[in-house]
Amino acid sequence: MKPYSQIATTSRFSRLLIGLSVLVLFVVLMMQTAAISRHQALQELQHKTEADLNRYIITVQQKLDRFKDLPKLLSTHPDLLSILPHPDTEENKLRLNLFLEEVNDIIGASDTYLMNREGLTVAASNWSMERSFIGGNFSFRPYFIDAVAGGAGSYFALGTTSQQRGYFFSYPVYSNNEVVGVIVVKIDLNDVEDHWNDPLQDILVTDNDDVIFISTRPDWKFRSLTPLSVEDQRRVQESLRYGDNPLVSLDITLREPLMAGVELVTMKPAIDSDAEGDNRNQQQYLLMTQSIENAGLNVSMLSNMKVVDQKVLAAMVQVAFIYIALMLLIWVLRVRYRLKLQQRDFQLREHKALEESEARIRAIIDHTHAGLITLDEAGTVRYMNPTAEKLFGVTADELRGQYLSPLFSEAARTLCWRYIMDETTDTAELTIEADALRKNRQSFPVELTLGRMSVAGEKLFMLTIHDITERKQYEQKLRDATEALEYRVQERTKDLVQINARLMEEMTQHRNTQNELIQTAKLAVLGQLSAGINHELNQPLTAIRNYADNGLAFLERGKLEPVSNNLMEISGLTERMAKIIHPLKEFSRKSTNCIEPVSLKQIRDGVMSVMYGRFEKEQVKVSWPEGVDQVWVMADRLRLEQVFVNLLTNALQAVSDQQDKVIAVTTHSTEVVTDIFVRDNGPGVIDPERVFEPFYTTKSSGQGIGLGLPISQRIIESFYGELTVQNHHQGGAEFCVRLPCAINQTQQHTVLVDQGQ
């Protein structure tokens, strides 16, 4: 039979070997998972990038094809020869400028202009602007050189006059088979910078020198994908193609070609990155490049590799979870098997071990000598016998005059000090079992007895210590040996069964709770929507009643024309009610197709047609800003009318107790949004933070149920806008409706001219 030490060494070596094998298998599995998942994710990203790149190239190609033949068509117009090579009259020059302006508006170009054979601009669509092209000489431009030579020209550059980017199409103007001028159409290809909203993809448009002139990253514009030589950089700068921009290259630190037109690049994400060589500021991209035929343009798409890294990480986490769960299952099964073996072996040795334990315990008790420690009235050590010194590994001189704290555990110290400090305790001794501490901080169990005594009138304490280490070991074995192992197995099995049952119960409860919450949310939304529609129908019904009463009065007077007008208004309101009811079928879901440019004049006319009767009856003065027909926003007209009817109704109720009842509507517009303010001179809002809560109202019974403002807020948010309220510093409540701006037909000409060369 092998010695126990040899068996233990073999067992430890076996466990170490198994653990090492499991770890190596885990590392290999993770490496394979990472390699396979990265390859698949990279292929998916490459396919998506190629599809997006082709879609954008097709869009750009279609736009170029739509404009490329327009200069040739315009060159045939007879009015062009009336001012070439020099204008005959100012009237002819003005007529041609107006013609080019009209053409430019119709075709949707940035600018359209005419140059004579020397490159001097003699007519332009932006003739009325401060930075007009008229008088400018662009003979150095390649598109002019190509057109003067008799061919069609095309070129992308930064405008020298407007400093705006554009793509130029040119064509010669002939008179008696001789080139006498050049007609040019400039278009804008920069839509991608405003409409591309994928944060993980960037689009670059470059010329044949790899200079970036269109980019979704503003800090990448007028930089190059590859470093330019000194000669190429001087040539591009002398052509004034990109003004005085320095044309430095992107900070690409590593290129890894994958196939033709596709490569992995590593670069710093910003111009102002940290110190050189700091890899923490570098980002990896998939770069794919294609050329646009006959345009001299290259389109590149940069896809962030974060998507690939996230998919690789997700795959590794899933595989690691499965692997760890499998290893844990194997470990549990192995532990259970070992416990069964130990239980069987224990049953064979049980009787012999019990007999030996009893004999040893009796021998220890018969031959054990107690340790004695004497304490003074303050609880400090005065004397220790040799047995106590041997038990604790210290001498009496080392502890004399010190407290008992270094000798016992915290629990034992607490009980002893409570006994020593309690003056009311009788003469009964304190006997406890506790953990004692040797000098090397090794813990061992003892039985201590603390009692009072008096020597020559001095109050002392006697502490008796018995080392019960062996007794504790063998007594515990004697009491618990029969059921210890079996109890452990039963408890582990019981815990696993209880945990499994509890998990199943929690999963069932979670599913039931989730279904109940979903059903409750649906019923709540349906109730709010139904109540809101009932609230909104009250307004047009009131208007219909007023129109009907007015029509009856006019009919009695024989005034048929007002009767007809009232009936037409009633018909419009019934159609409005039908549109209000329609969203109930969609269960609060709105189609995005209804969002379109809406004039504030339309809103004013619709709202006043519904509310004018109540305003006249209550003698309320409502003021609208001048030029409401020039204010256009993106919204649904019917829904926006509902919002303003609700706001004006609330304002009407707010000023009901005022002597001068005034409601003012004002606007403030920027390039992006338009703010429409509705202010009254009432007492103001009591609690602005709660006015948009459903069913919250401060109105008296019968005047409202508290759903108008929450419904209005949801309507404005569906237009990507915002509805807020505050108390005005001059008094009264002020509601602000913020909506995205829209460009109407009368403003389109001005915007196109402002974006010119």
Structure description:
With 757 residues, the protein is an alpha+beta fold. Among the domains are: 68-187, PAS domain (Beta-Lactamase), CATH 3.30.450.20; 191-308, Beta-Lactamase; 368-467, Beta-Lactamase; 593-753, 2-Layer Sandwich (Heat Shock Protein 90). It contains 16 helices and 23 strands. The chain has helices spanning 4-67, 70-74, 90-107, 142-148, 191-195, 230-238, 306-367, 386-392, 396-399, 410-421, 469-557, 560-581, 600-618, 637-654, 708-718, 745-754, and strands at residues 111-116, 121-124, 153-158, 165-174, 179-187, 201-206, 212-215, 252-259, 262-267, 283-292, 297-304, 371-375, 381-384, 430-437, 443-455, 458-467, 596-599, 621-623, 632-635, 662-669, 673-680, 722-727, 733-740. The strands form 5 sheets. Strands 7-6-11-10-9-8 form a 6-stranded antiparallel β-sheet. A 5-stranded antiparallel β-sheet has the order 2-1-5-4-3. A 5-stranded antiparallel β-sheet has the order 13-12-16-15-14, with helices on both faces. Strand 3 (153-158) and strand 4 (165-174) form a beta hairpin. The protein is elongated and about 140 Å long. The protein starts with a helix and ends with a helix.
